[in-house]
Target: M48 family metalloprotease
Amino acid sequence: MKRPLHRLCRHVAVLATALSVALTPVSAQSRSEKASLPVVRDAEIEALVADYARPILKAAGLSRSGIQIVLVNSPGFNAFVAGRRIFINTGAITATETPNQLIGIIAHEIGHLAGGHQQRLREQLERSQTIAIVAGLLGAGIAVAGASTGAGGAAQAGAGLMSGGSAAAQRSLLSYQRGEESAADRTALTYLDRTGQSGKGLLETFSTLDRNNLFAAARSNYLSSHPMPRDRIAALEAAARESQHFGRADPPALVERHNLARAKIAAYNGGMGDVRRLFARDPRGLPALYGDAIATQLAGSTASALQKIDALIAARPNNPWFHEMRGETLMAAGRASEAAAAYSRAVKLDGTGSGLLKAQVGQAIVSGGDRSQMPKAIELIRGGLQSDPANASAYRFLAMAYGQLGEVGQAELATAEGYWHGGNIRQAQIFATRAQQKLKRGSPSWLQAQDIIQTKPRS
Model:
């Protein structure tokens, strides 16, 4: 990966049990229970995926269950669930040519959540009472990932892990997992039908996987926790075609949003070359031009990037994400006050109420360095954090704003909050302790620092 996708990347722990629910074979990050994934935050892409998931979650009776969708900055085609989170690789977004294809993937993962598959797998693992089975599962994940990417060394490492476990127990457990995958496929079709959407995209996804021979080098179907793509197509096609919604096409406006998101990912991860390859069939379409503008900005050509972004805004004046990108370009050029105005326009046009976007306005004001504007910046960043408290980077700007006003205790508390939400509990506690020494004992801020101090770090 040539560059990070967007403003903020942090890491979250992923349990090895995520193996059981990946749509495609998990990649090398699943080699240990301590593996972590690069998580990316982007208001535009998050809003799009949330819109895809919302009706499916409602159909599954999970709309009030606090399900969170997390974007993983990885080019691999993958999606999986862990806890109350659905993880979607950015590679899965760029690889899906239609909204319906990605919606089918999301419906499959929601099927796992609704079916309680994770809990049942944990119970199955507990009953096995042997770490060899876990090692075998991890080995299978590595072996299949190696086969799909041509990484022979990874495949050999997987085979080595497999040799240490009980073959019979592994076959039993992997067979169990394939059953859960098939159940999630069928459930996905049900949810798609309930929401008036086609199951065609899900079939197209499996056809793509089959054509790409992702499973071709696996030594045995038992080495995969998933059914073979062609088997999944055979099992689903008749049911999918029975739906009255099978021939329904995605709305053109949604297709455009989907392709704009794909263009952004391509530009940030691969630059102009990836954008041109992705949109070779429509090099002058709006998504291709969007990706070109982003890649131009990343290449450091600010004036040219602004011209291209302004042309996009002229074509779609009410698209908030074009204004957001204008703000980012102006920030990169050191024009903070103009950037704040562009971000403010984006906030007004945004119908999702993105906390990320709201905080960006305050962050731009902080970057401007006008001390008299710091109270306003604090208010804006705090407002963004109310709806998105996990925005770790916003706390850094919040601390800077308090520092400009000489409120050192609040600055150190904001720094502690940022570390806490970023998962660095020990550093959070260090700054919370420092903050308490400067805050009034018993005050709300002092008590907030105390809560951080009393958090027990994970072993």
Notes: Strands lie at 8-13, 36-41, 68-72, 79-82, 85-89. Confidence is low (pLDDT under 50) at residues 1-35, 127-166, 168-176, 214-225.
